[in-house]
Specification:
Elements (H helix, E strand, L loop, with lengths): L8 E5 L3 H7 L4 H21 L4 E8 L7 H14 L2 H10 L1 E6 L7 H14 L5 E9 L1 H14 L9 H7 L10 E4 L18 E4 L9 H12 L8
Helix pairs in contact: 1-2, 2-3, 6-7
C-alpha cells in the first residue's frame, strides 16, 4: 500500500457554526462558542499527522457586515482564544502563531493580545498556526500592490515573486489542501492568490461537528489526488 501523502500546508474554511446551532435549537452565539472549541482541537490533530502549516479562515472582511451584537461576541471569543492559557500551550508544543488580515480593524485590546502572542511564539519551529482574521484575498492583493507602489519599484521588476513577498503570507508555502466545511463549495475570498494549485475538499459537516475522523477522510482523499501543476 503506498505511503499516505500529507499536505505540508493545510488551510480550512471554517463554516457552519450558525447552521449547527440552528439545527439544535441553540443561539448562533452557542454555535460560535462550539466552533472555537473545535479550532483549539484541530491544531493538535494536524500536528499529530505531520502537517507543518495550518491556516484557519476564522473571520472574513465580509463578516464585519453581520449584526453588531454578533460581531462583538465573536471579538470576545477571539480575545479568549488569545488568552494566556492557549498561548502557553503553543509555546509548549513549539508552534508559531501568526495572524493574517487587516489587524488594524480589530479591537485595540485584541490587537495587543495578537502582537504579544506573535512575539512570544515567533521563534518556535515545530509548526505554524495562521489565523485569518478580518481577512480577504482581494484585500490582501490590493495591500500588496500599494506596498509595491509606495516603494517605487520599477514596473519591469514587478513579478509574481515580488508580489508573494508583499502578501500577508510572505515566506509561507502555498496551501496544498483547502478544506471547506458546512456544505458550501466556494472559496469566499480566501487565499485568492495562493490557491491556484491547491486541492479542494468539501464536506457537508458543519464546523462544530468536524471530527478527527473527518480530517483523516480529507487527508485520505488528498493522498489519492494526482498533482501535476499544469505539467
Amino acid at each position: 500500500m503506498p505511503e499516505q501523502k500529507i499536505p505540508k500546508h493545510l488551510a480550512i474554511i471554517i463554516d457552519g457554526n450558525r447552521r449547527w446551532a440552528k439545527k439544535r435549537g441553540l443561539t448562533s452565539f452557542e454555535g460560535h462558542k462550539k466552533g472555537l472549541e473545535n479550532v483549539e482541537k484541530i491544531g493538535d490533530w494536524a500536528k499529530k499527522r505531520g502537517i507543518k502549516i495550518l491556516t484557519l479562515y476564522v473571520f472574513s472582511v465580509e463578516n464585519w457586515q453581520r449584526k453588531k451584537k454578533e460581531v462583538n461576541y465573536l471579538m470576545k471569543l477571539l480575545s479568549r482564544a488569545f488568552g494566556g492559557k492557549n498561548i502557553k500551550k503553543l509555546l509548549q508544543k513549539g508552534i508559531k502563531m501568526q495572524v493574517i488580515g487587516q489587524k488594524e480593524r480589530l479591537p485595540k485590546a485584541l490587537q495587543e493580545q495578537i502582537k504579544k502572542a506573535e512575539d512570544l511564539t515567533k521563534n518556535n519551529k515545530e509548526g505554524i498556526l495562521n489565523l485569518a482574521l478580518s481577512y480577504g484575498g482581494r484585500s490582501e492583493i490590493v495591500q500588496a500592490i500599494k506596498k509595491i507602489v509606495k516603494k517605487k519599484i520599477p514596473v519591469e521588476k514587478i513579478d509574481e515573486d515580488l508580489i508573494n513577498q508583499e502578501l500577508w503570507t510572505a515566506g509561507l508555502a502555498e496551501p496544498d489542501l483547502i478544506i471547506r466545511t458546512g456544505g458550501e463549495q466556494r472559496l469566499s475570498n480566501f487565499l485568492t492568490w495562493q490557491s491556484i494549485y491547491s486541492e479542494f475538499y468539501f464536506t457537508k459537516k458543519n464546523w462544530p461537528e468536524f471530527s478527527e475522523q473527518d480530517l483523516d477522510e480529507a487527508l485520505k482523499d488528498f493522498s489519492l489526488r494526482q498533482r501535476r501543476f499544469g505539467k
